[in-house]
UniProtKB/TrEMBL annotation:
Organism of this sequence: Deinococcus lacus
Pfam families in UniProt: SBP_bac_5 (PF00496)
Residue stretches in coiled coil: none
SUPFAM superfamilies in alphabetical order: Periplasmic binding protein-like II
Location of region: Disordered: 22-52
Domain Solute-binding protein family: 105-521
Name of the protein this chain belongs to: ABC transporter substrate-binding protein
Record field: transmembrane: none
Amino acid sequence: MQTRALIFATLTLLLAACDTKTETSTTKTETQTTPAADPATPATPAAAGTADSGAKADASTLVIQQSADIPTLDPGTTYDTSSGQIVENLYEPLVGYKGSSISDLQGVLATEWKEEDGGLKYRFTLRPNVKFHTGNPMTCADAEYTFERNLVTNTGDSGNWFISESLLGTPKNAVDDPSITWERIDQAVECDGETLVFTLPKVDPAFVSKLAYTGQSIVDSKHAKEIGEWDGTEKTWKEHVGKELNGSPLAQKPSGTGPYMLVSRDNANVTTKAFGDYWGGKPKIENVVLKIVPEEASRLQALLRGDADFVETGGRPMIDEQLRGKEGIAILDNLPDTYVFGISMNQKIADGADLGSGKLDGQGIPADFFSDVDVRRGFASAFNVQDYIDQVQQGKGTPRNFQLPDTFPGYDKSIPAQPFDMEAATAAFKKAWGGKLWDTGFTINASYRQGSVPAQTAMEMLKANIESINPKFKINIQPKQWSEILASAKDGKEILTTTSWAPDYADPDNFVYTFYHKDGYYKSRTALDDAEINGWIEEARTTTDPAKRQAAYSKVAKKALDQAYFILMPTNPGIRAYRSSVQGVSEGSYNPMYAFGLGTLWKDLSKQ
């Protein structure tokens, strides 16, 4: 079920210099115009500052421009940054992030929570006097319905796989795992009066962090049932198992508890207004308008003119060349990196992949080519990380030692980073395949996402260095559409390709399990199955002791580095440009877990 996180590479706002969120299989759907979520208090187009009325970035309106469309507004299937930046302002989860920290959580719709039974039970006290946009009061029944709906509908196009893993012990839904019954779902989340109670089948140290994910936001169950969503009963639950929700009734008519409510939505614009009955007080900015503007030049000009407050810029090169130092433009630089980018080497390439001759004869490679550790070490040692930093990231960033952001718990900075060493690469290649590889050479096909300049540059640098070692070494680089890479990778046919991941939730498990476990998302691209590493990961997944988890992750990092399981890309500090009239933006308040590019919620912003 872990088809997400490669989510953001196609739907992301592309706010960093390289591809920002993970890969995705989420299908973009054409959006339709929708009415206000609260029919009793609709906003007029003029008041809301809709794009049709020529919304300007005045003091009452925040205008955002981006190229990506909005696949859905249903929290139950929100799994991309483009949708997420809106949903995280219309809806709210039980817990959220405290300031700029990704590890300190605070109550949002819950005021407090308590762990019981050694981590097998959690009790959440819900915030009183909270209203949905319809005017309905939020109760424990809404929270119970939300999580049961997420467990029932759980598909690979949503983030519900990881909440299902916590509450049911499996990332799958009832179609893919027949052992899931209504009784298991019903007992996993219950109300004890107005206290929400979760019962877990096993300890999950990341459980509370998972609840901060936008997709676990609480929905208005009364409203949902009235507009045709699942009725919440055992009688009908099977009809909704794995149901596609991108265009669901709730996606068309959302009703959350968030500080903003939907006014209208069409293929080009999404317009929201401040919710007057928001429990946290009405936001200072009255209207937020998001415009879909495909042309980069148009977006940049809108920002420079002041017609937009925040736009998709194309990353560091474009910001430095066209926006830095310009009147009315503010820059937020050197932001924490929560994104991981690397190159995978498949140790067991599936039938049907383009292996050339399929032999170790210089005209191709055998399917188990990368199962030889010296082949992997040769490739890893031949990648010049510092050159990549200088060429692609304009000198920003540092080498990594692990496929985990160095801003996350679990990253051990005492471990030396993967080194660039052409002599070591040469020595490894001379040892590979019992010394035969050096004499025969190889021809290998590598791929990257078409249009991704960082990925293309990385592959070209790797090719140049490896081919310079031995004239018999050949790498053919092939740009592919993202959908083609996803399909091929899923079938185990990708040989040497780029990998990327950004967090679903702020816990190292979301990266370490994904990349290094035998059942992780990337197993089809690496065929990695290291018994010691599997054991250390499972150890870290079943204890809440931070020291024990850190020790386990350090062991994984050291062995993975020694075995060269990935070619590691450097950290990439983020950069954002915005209108200086926007207040509430700073490095101290920036939290990379928010989908909105300025690392904050709209409610915390104001304008001069």
